[in-house]
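Task 17 of the worksheet. Students: predict the tertiary structure of the chain below and write it out as structure tokens. Keep your answer in the requested format; marks are given for formatting as well as content.
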Amino acid sequence: MSSARLYVGNLNYDTTEDSLKDLFAQYGEVVSVNIIGRKGFGFVEMASAEQAEKAKTALNQKEIDGRTIRVDEAKPREQKERGSFNRDGGGGGGFRRRDF
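Model answer:
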């Protein structure tokens, strides 16, 4: 594993950032925790890739707060083009006046 940032999915909506930090701290130093509001997932950043791998191995598919969580290496966020709706650069919408 090359990243120290982990994706944590299938979280119970009642799981807090503090409780997630305490859980992951058993496997190393937690740098940051960010639960995405009411989406059921979040991210935990560990101090090293080795600690992240240790936490991933120990916690993936474990039951936490009544839910079986998924822990995986976080993937980099894709950059989106400003103002485009789809991958071919189209979109933009708006009204076009056609003069016949």
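Marker's comment: The first strand starts at residue 5 and ends at 9. The domain at 5-71 is CATH 3.30.70.330 (Alpha-Beta Plaits).
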